[in-house]
Specification:
heterodimer; A: mainly beta; seven-stranded mixed sheet; 11 strands; B: mainly beta; six-stranded mixed sheet; five-stranded antiparallel sheet; globular
């Protein structure tokens, strides 16, 4: 159990385009999902907390107008990187929390390359 | 400021020996503690979670928590070459009234099991 899927696994796009990443919890309902970003040889950095039915909460320094998050249901959250630039190239990973202790399970990640 | 500290390594351990990984955290309000394993290019995989002081064992893995010292550790017995990975320590602050924060990660310890 506790499976989280993420799609697509890899994206290469031109600068200025928008990219949408989907995150699904397959075998449990997740009121809260999280989006992280990981640059090479660095640890995961929380970008935002996605709450079903309400606005996402963004971490300091993360532009909410650039990284649009929608949590449409208890099993689906999407992250849209708008007007992507080369510096947005990174490994984006979502997670879903399962219990009151917020035990989180991660999706396989999306590797974004912006040319 | 929530901080999680780990020795980046690399930590080299002979096959069959015990690998000991350590982590300290700064936020005394932290309630949930996790160890994740991350292979290169992959997303983190939950190995252990621990919420109360003492030891928790699961197969070859033992997590140890000491809240007074703000210290959490992971022991891997009978280390195998397949255990070679980066191990991430993560903490979560549980909020009264529900809701959840994203995890704060350490930078990870690179573990190498020598055959």
């Amino acid at each position: 159990g506790a499976v989280v899927s993420q799609h697509p696994s890899r994206v290469i796009c031109k600068s200025g385009t928008s990219v949408k990443i989907e995150c699904r919890s397959l075998d449990f309902q997740a009121t809260t999902m999280f989006w992280y970003r990981q640059f090479p040889k660095q640890s995961l950095m929380l970008m935002a907390t996605s709450n079903e039915g309400s606005k996402a909460t963004y971490e300091q320094g993360v532009e909410k107008d650039k990284f649009l998050i929608n949590h449409a249901s208890l099993t689906l959250s999407t992250l849209t990187v708008t007007s992507a630039h080369p510096e947005d190239s990174s490994f984006y990973i979502c997670s879903a929390g399962r219990d009151i202790y917020n035990e989180q399970f991660f999706g396989p990640g999306t590797r974004l390359t912006v040319l | 400021q929530k901080e999680v500290e780990q020795n980046s390594g690399p930590l080299s351990v002979p096959e069959g020996a015990i690998a000991s990984l350590n982590c300290t955290y700064s936020d005394r309000g932290s309630q949930s503690f996790f160890w994740y394993r991350q292979y290169s290019g992959k997303s983190p995989e939950l190995i252990m979670s621990i919420y109360s002081n003492g030891d928790k064992e699961d197969g070859r893995f033992t997590a140890q928590l000491n809240k007074a010292s703000q210290y959490v550790s992971l022991l891997i017995r009978d280390s195998q070459p397949s255990d070679s990975a980066t191990y991430l320590c993560a903490v979560n602050l549980y909020r009264e009234g529900g809701g959840a924060d994203g995890l704060t990660f350490g930078k990870g310890t690179h573990l190498i099991i020598q055959p």
